[in-house]
Amino acid sequence: RTNLDVALSDPDPDPAELRRVAELVGASATRMSRLVDDLLVYARLGAPAREEVPVELGHLVVDAVDEFQAVAASRGITLVTELAPTCVVVGDALALRQAVANLLHNAVRLAPEGSRIWLATGTEGAAAWVTVTDEGPGISEEDRAKVFQRFWRGDQKAARAEGRSGLGLAIVAQIVADHGGTATVAAAPTGGSIFTLWLPLADTRGPANGVGAGPVEPVGDSQEAAS
């Protein structure tokens, strides 16, 4: 919606930019349609069937950054990517893209204006990971155990006013679990939170065996994706 608003606010838009925005909106519509279908399946039958194809996690991060770039820029937020050269898992690209997008959506919504958000990928042992780290208000230790529960919304009054469902992080956890992985959250050195998605590497199918909570601070050689 923000991408559309930005495009429509330009009295003399560039055709190439309009096409880029149309492609972003089309991709988002496809993803959201799939999400609605999945929610219906969860409600009726349990976990929906998933595709099983090689998925490069770095590509998912780049796509998510592209979608949320305008939203972040409107609040002066800089998106920074730190991507491993290759980080391939096996699974459903649309579902995994939804999980990353949900995390980034929350980070952009909660991060202070003028702050940064880091998105990174990497591997540890038999697992691949994706992290989203922000400089937001953080989550109390007590609440970290609840964030992936259905209908958990933190500030209930604000959530109701904003029309939030409390399902975003629960969907993240379910998607990752469907792929044999886990989702975790921890306090970040930046003062905010670091969300980590753990997934089995493509050549090591099965649960992410006892791996840790992932990197907890941004590393060097980063690429600023938006400002």
Describe this structure in words.
It is a single chain. This protein is of the alpha+beta class. About 40% of the residues lie in helices and about 20% in strands. The protein has seven helices and eight strands, in the order ααβαββαββαααβββ. It has helices at about 1-10, 15-45, 55-75, 95-110, 140-145, 155-160, 170-180; strands at about 55, 80, 90, 115-125, 125-135, 180-185, 195-200, 225. The strands form two sheets. Strands 6-7-5-4-2-8 form a six-stranded mixed beta sheet. Strand 4 (about 115-125) and strand 5 (about 125-135) form a beta hairpin. Helix 2 (about 15-45) packs across helix 4, helix 3 packs parallel to helix 4 and helix 4 (about 95-110) runs antiparallel to helix 7 (about 170-180). The protein is globular and about 50 Å long. Mean pLDDT is about 80; it is low at about 155-165 and about 205-220.
Helical segment count: 7
* Order of SSEs: HHEHEEHEEHHHEEE
- Structural class, by secondary structure, is alpha+beta
Strand content: 15-25%
Stretches where pLDDT is under 50 for at least 5 consecutive residues are: 156-165, 206-222
The chain-level mean pLDDT equals 81
* Radius of gyration, CA atoms, in whole angstroms: 17 Å
What separation lies between the terminal Cα atoms? 19 Å
Task: State the shape.
Answer: globular
* Number of E strands: 8
Level of helix content?
A: 40-55%
| Strand order, largest beta sheet | 6-7-5-4-2-8
The main β sheet shows up as: 6 strands, mixed
